[in-house]
Prior knowledge:
Elements: H1 2-16, E1 18-22, E2 34-36, E3 43-46, E4 58-62, E5 76-83, E6 88-98, E7 109-113, E8 116-119, E9 128-137, E10 142-149, E11 157-170, H2 177-200
Helix pairs in contact: 1-2
Amino acid sequence: MKRIFGFMIFFALAFLSDLSYAAFVNSYSVNNWNKATEGLGGDIAFGPTDIATGSVNWIKITSSNDDGKKAPNLNTNQSFTIIAAASGLVTFDWLFSTSDSRGAQKDPFYWVLNGVQTELTSNGHNKNQSGPQSFAVNVGDTFGFILSSFDSKKGSSSLTISNFSAPIYIAPAAVPVPATFWLIGTPLLGLLSRKRKTVKA
């Protein structure tokens, strides 16, 4: 009997809890991200806030460009990272643009998960690149975006992230336990009672 009631409680909580997805709002509000900029001109800016959702529409990361004024071949990173609030899929659209004649060769863009970087830009001379992207995260993982510059020369690059979505958990609805028992447990208890009567017979 105790096992039956234990199962009923577990099933009710699992049924009532829900996995959802959020943009740059709530757990993923831009104020909760770790923003790190380096070098002359390196920057992370935010787009306008959507009145309906409270989320910013996009983030824009700009690489450094000092043309060797501070140091020759200055290697810098602009990073924007956060801890995953739940397990699920992170999705976003990205748009890369540069004034560097070498394209993304010296200014690559990565998504990062727990310190492991995955490059999205190609190293050709294409100055404008874009695409959709998704990857899986587990709750507690650190993920985000990095725009690098290997030499901070010949023009800066910019990276815009839009249509961002990441997993969050919605708290279970407050349903009285007795009501949950009657809703889910009655059929189980009926089956248990019927089984006992059959054994006695």
